[in-house]
Amino acid sequence: MGAAEAAGSALLTGVAGWLFVGFALLILGTAIAVVWSKNPVHSALFLLASFLLVACVFILEEAEFVGAVQILVYAGGIMVLFLFVIMLVHQRTAAGTPAFQHQWDIALLLLPVFLIPFLYILGTEKFTDIARNPDAFRAVAGRVIGNTEAVSWLMFRDYLLPFEVASVFLLVAMIGAVVLGKRSFEKVD
Amino acid sequence: MTITINHFLILSFLLFAIGFFGVLVRRNFLTVLMSIELMLNAVNINFIAFSRRLSDLTGQVFSVFVITIAAGEAAIGLALTISLFRQRKTLNVEEANTMKG
Amino acid sequence: MKDLLWLVPLFPLAGFLVNGVLYLISHRTRGEAADAHGSQGAPALAAAPAPSVHGENPAHTHAGSSAHDPAGHSPIPLKTAHTVVGTVSVGLSCVFAFLAILDVGIGRLSEGAAHVVTLYRWLPLGVNQAVGQVHGPAGEWFVDAAFRLDSLSALMIAFVTFVGFLIHVYSVGYMGHEEGYGRYFAYLNLFMFSMLLLVLGANFLLLFVGWEGVGLCSYLLIGYFYDRDAAADAGKKAFVVNRIGDFGFILGIFGIFSLFGSLDFGKVFPAAAAHPSAYAPYLTLVCLCLFVGACGKSAQFPLYVWLPDAMAGPTPVSALIHAATMVTAGVYMVARCNVLFRLSPDALLVVAVVGGFTALFAATIGVAQNDIKKVLAYSTVSQLGYMFLACGVGAFVAGMFHVMTHAFFKACLFLGSGSVIHALGGEQDIRKMGGLASKIPVTYRTFLVATLAIAGVPLLAGFFSKDAILAAAFEAHFASAPWLGRVLWAAALFTAGLTAFYMLRLVSLTFWGKFRGGTEQEAQIHESPRSMTVPLIVLAFLSVVGGYVGIPMVRGGDRIGEFLHPILLPLAGAGAHTAAHEAAASTEALLMAASVAAAAIGLALAYVWYAKGEGAVPARIAARFPGVYRAVSNKYYVDEAYDSVFVQGLAKGGGRFLWDFDATVVDGAVNGTRHVTVGLSWLSSFFDQYVVDGLVNGVANTLQAGFRGFRRAQTGRVQNYALVMGGGLFCLVAVYLLFR
C-alpha cells in the first residue's frame, strides 16, 4: 500500500497503482452486470461484489474506517435487506418482457452528452495530486493514532449536530418504512 | 502505474453513469434501487479521493453520512417496493404511472 | 412587555398543538374502544387547560353549561376543552398584541419607531464576497428569526387578533354541531399563528413562512368538509392557484436577496431608499415577481378564481381567512415593500391597472350571483382590487386603511350570512330567502349596517377609506400614461356604484319582502345563539366607527395617515412622486360628492328594482341582453377557459411516450406558425369586421398547439421524468461552465 510516499510524489504508484486499475475495472464490470442481469438476485450479488471492491479502493486510499463502514453497512446491512425483499416479493421475470424499457436508446445517448462537460472540467481544472499533510488522516491533535480515531474526533466534535440529525433521519426512515410496509393503511382522518 | 486524481474522477464518472443509466432504463423497481446505490458509491469514491489529496478528513466524514443516507434510502425504497408489489402485483416501474397527466 | 412580542404568535401555536393532540388522542380512543375506557384520557387532559384565565367570554359560558352533562363517555368535556383552548389562546394573543403596541407607544410608532425582537440566528449563510453597491454591503449573510413591531405590523396585528378572536367566539356557536370540532379549532389556531408570523416577521423569509402557512390552513379549512367533492376540489384549486403566485413571490425574494444581500426589512428598505438610482433598474422585475405572489394570495385578476370557490369552507372561515385577514396579506406585502414599488413606476402602473380592473370585473360578476356567499366572495375580490388600486396609485396608506375597515364590515357581512344560513338550516340561495328581517332582527340590523358601510354611505367606515382611494386615484400621475389616473378613478367610481347596488340587492332579496322557501322551513327560522350575535354586534359597531381614524380635510383628522406615515420612507433625491397627494379642498369635496352620488344611485336602483319592483326590471334587462347576462352570471367563463386550456389541455392525451415529444413539439411549432400566419392573413382581409373574433381564435389555436406538446410530456413515468431531469441538469452544468 502506498503509505510511505514522501510529500511531492504521486500518491498511488507501482503495485498499488496496478491494484487500483484492477479494482476499478472489476468495479465497472460488476456495476455493468448489476444493470445488465435480468434476474434481480444476480443483480444483488453483483452489487455486493461491487460494494466490496469499492471498499478495497477506500482502503487503498487509506480511508480504512470508511472502508470498514462500507463493508459493514452496505454488504452487511443493505444487501441483506435487498435479498430479503427479493425473496419476499418473489417475482419471476415474465418471459419475453425485456429488462430495459424503451427509452434506453435516449438514455444511452445522454451518457456521451454528459461526458462533454466532464471532459471539459478534466481538461481545464488542475487538481493537486500531492497530499500536503499525509498524517492528517490518522493524527489527532498532533499525535498520530489511527484513521478511526481521527474520523471519530472530527465526527463527534465538529460534526456532532449533523451526526445527531443523521440519527434522527434514520429514525424517521425506520418509522416510514414500518408505516409503508404495514399490511394495510389504517384509515387516517 | 501512477494513478492520478483524474483516474479516480474517471472511475467515479463511469460508475455514476452506469448507475444513472440503470435508473433510467431498468423496468424492475429493485434494480432501479440498486442502481441508485451504485451512484451513491461513485460519489463516495470522489469524496475519499479528494479527502486524501486535500489532507482533509471532512471528506471521509461526509462519505459516512452518504452511507447513512443510502441506508435510509434503501429502507424506504424497499418498503415502497413491498407496498407497490402488494397493490399492483408487479415490480414494473412503468406500470406505476397513475400520476400521468 | 414589548420584548414579549413573540408570545403573540406563540399562544395560537400552543392552542393548535394542544387542540391537535387532544383531537388526535380522542379520535383514536373513540375509534378503538368507544365503550370501555374510550374517553378516559380525554377528561384528564381536558382538565389541564380548563382552569386558565378568561372564563368570562361567551364561548366559555356557552359551552361550559353543557359541560355538566353527566354522560361520562360522551365527548362533551372534550369539546369544552377545544373551545377554551381555541378561543382563550387567541384572546390572550390579542391582549398581548395590544399590550405590546401600547408598551412601544402609539406616539412613538407614528414617529417611525420599530421594535425588533430577535429570537435567534435562523440561517447563517456565510460571507458575502461580492463587492459593489448592487450586491449589498460586504459582510455576513444571515437570516434571523425576528419579529418586528412597527406602525404597519401594529395595525395588522391589532385587527387580525381582534377580528380573529371574535370569529373564534362566533365559531363556537356556528360549528357546535359539526363533526370534527377539535380539528376545526386546531386548524383555525394554526391559521392565526401563521398569519401573525406573516405580519410580524422581520424579514422576507419569515413573511414567506407565514405566507405558506396561511395557504396551508386555507387549504385545510376550505376542504374541512372533505367528504363533499366540491369542498375537496375547491381546497385543491386554492392550493394550486396559490402555488403559481407563491412561485412568483419566491422569485421576488431571490431577487431581493441577490440585490441587497439581506432579507431584513430594516436593511433592504433603507438601502433602497438611500440609493434609488443604483437599485431602480432592477426593481421592476423584482416588484412584478412580488406582485404575482400578491395576486395569488389576494385573488387578483388572473389568479382570483380560487376565492369564490373557497366559499365551500365553513362560513366563519370565509369571514376570517377569505375576507378579513389572509387575502389582505398581498396588500400588506405590497404596502410593506412600498419603497421598492415606488422606485419602479412601471410596476406601480401594473399594480394599479390590475387592481382597478379586478375591482370592476368582480363587481360586475357579483351583480348576477344568487348564492349569498358567492356575492360576498366577488365583493371581496372587488374590494381587494380597490386596495391594490390604492397601492398602485401610490396611496399605500389609503390601501391599508381600506384593509382595516374592510376587515370589519366584510367579517360582519360574512358572519351575518353565516347566521342567515344557520337560521335557514343550510340554505344559501337568496332566491329562496326573503322576509327574514323580522325573524332574525339582530342579524338583519348588523348586516344592514355593514352593507351601508361597504356601500360607502357617508359617515360609516367604508365611506372614509373608499373616498381616500378614489381621491388618490383621481390625483394619480403616471408618467407613461397621464390619462390613466382619471380612467382608473372612473372605473373605481363605477365600481362603487355597482357595489352599493349588488349589496342592497342582497339585503332586499334576503331580508325584505316575503319568504320564498317552504312553510316548514319558515317555522324553524330562529335567531342565532349569543356567541354568534355578540361578535356581529361588535363588528357592526366597528363598521360604523372604524372610519373615524381617517377623516379627510379636517386638520389632525387623518390619524391613520399619520400613524402609517413612517412606512413611507423618503427616497433620496426624489420627491416628485410623493408630493402629488395634496389635492385642493374643493376638488376633494367634489370627489366626495361624486362617490356619494354613485353610492346613492346604486342603492336607489337596487331599492327600486328589488325591494319595490320585485326584480321585474332586472329580469327584463336580462331577457333583453341574454348574451351579456349569461356571460356575467357564468363569471365570464373564466373557469371554463382555464379548464379547457390548462386542465384539459394538460390532462388529456397522456400515455404518449417521450419519443413522441420531439415530433409533437416540432409539429406544434409548425402548426402554431401556420395558425398564426393563417390568422394574420385572415385578419388583414377582414380586419374591420372580425377583429376580436380573429384574435381570440388565433390565440386559442396557438395556445392549443403549444400545449399539446406539454400534455404529451406528462406520461406519468418516473423514469421519463428522471431522463428529462438529467437533460436539465446537463443544461445547468453547461450554462455554469460557459458563463462562470
Description:
The complex is a heterotrimer of chains A (189), B (101) and C (740). Chain A is mainly alpha-helical. Helices cover 66% and strands 2% of the residues of chain A. Chain A contains 6 helices and 2 strands. In chain A, α1 runs antiparallel to α2 and α2 runs antiparallel to α3. The longest helix of chain A is centred in the middle third of the chain and has 26 residues. Chain A starts with 13 loop residues before the first helix and ends in an 8-residue tail after the last helix. The N terminus of chain A is likely disordered. Chain B has a single domain, classed as Orthogonal Bundle (Helix Hairpins). Chain B is elongated and about 50 Å long. Chain B contains 3 helices and no strands. By secondary structure, chain C is mostly helical. Helices cover 70% and strands 3% of the residues of chain C. Chain C has 31 helices and 2 strands. Chain C has a two-stranded antiparallel ribbon. The two termini of chain C are 51 Å apart. About 8% of the residues of chain C have low confidence. Chains A and B meet through α1, α2, α3, α4 and α5 of A and α1, α2 and α3 of B.
Helix content of chain A: 55-70%
- Report the biggest beta sheet of chain C as strand number plus sense, adding barrel if it closes: 2 strands, antiparallel
Quaternary organization = heterotrimer
Low-confidence stretches of chain A: 1-8
CATH architecture descriptor name of the domain at 1-111 in chain A:
Up-down Bundle
CATH superfamily of the domain at 1-111 in chain A: NADH-ubiquinone/plastoquinone oxidoreductase chain 6, subunit NuoJ
Q: What are the low-pLDDT stretches of chain C, counting only 5+ consecutive residues below 50? A: 33-73, 576-580, 652-662
